[in-house]
Specification:
The protein is built from 2 helices and 9 strands. By secondary structure, the protein is mainly beta. It has one domain: Outer membrane phospholipase (ompla), Chain C. The chain starts with 5 loop residues before the first strand and ends with a strand.
């Protein structure tokens, strides 16, 4: 389990500037991440980040760059595994089904994550909550703070609800 509170400033450009470049908005902020454990299993770090969001019809690009402000002594080499940026590229259909690929590469290691959200509203056509099938595949380093320096692989399937 990871706790990741963040504070950020959201900037939205004028419609003309956004339309020419595809820039929807940008966030600049601070995030803290901790695994919530005590003693030698405790891991945490603080980062400042910048994250612009670009959109061209259904395609989107969300790069995020950060600088590390503080880290625990137990994870001094975390930048070797997390690096200083990640890049999310995706496609969202007119019915809001979403497919993304997120890559992150540190100086020595990296990770790749694939996500898909598919509407299941036809199963509950009259409900207030809209169910979605969510699937994720993960390969690489940094999936958890405690074992950030171990290569892991995972496949997850679940249900998410949108109001």
């Amino acid at each position: 389990m990871s706790v990741q509170p963040e504070m950020f400033y959201l900037w939205r450009p004028t419609r003309d500037a956004a339309g020419r470049r595809g820039l929807r908005d940008a966030r600049a902020g601070f995030m803290h991440e901790s695994n919530g454990k005590d003693g030698t299993s405790s891991r945490s770090w603080n980062r400042a980040f910048l994250e612009p969001h670009f959109r061209w019809r259904g395609l989107f690009l969300e790069p995020r760059v950060w600088t590390i402000l503080e880290r625990d002594k137990e994870n001094r080499d975390i930048a070797d595994y997390y690096g200083y940026a990640d890049l999310k590229f995706g496609y969202e259909t007119a019915s809001r089904q979403r497919f993304t690929i997120t890559g992150r590469h540190g100086p020595k290691h990296g990770s790749l994550q694939l996500d898909a959200s598919l509407s299941l509203q036809s199963l509950w056509p009259n409900g207030d909550m809209r169910p979605w099938l969510y699937a994720q595949a993960w390969a690489g380093y940094g999936e958890t703070l405690l074992y950030y320096n171990l290569r892991t692989y995972a496949i997850r399937i679940g249900i998410e609800f949108h109001p």
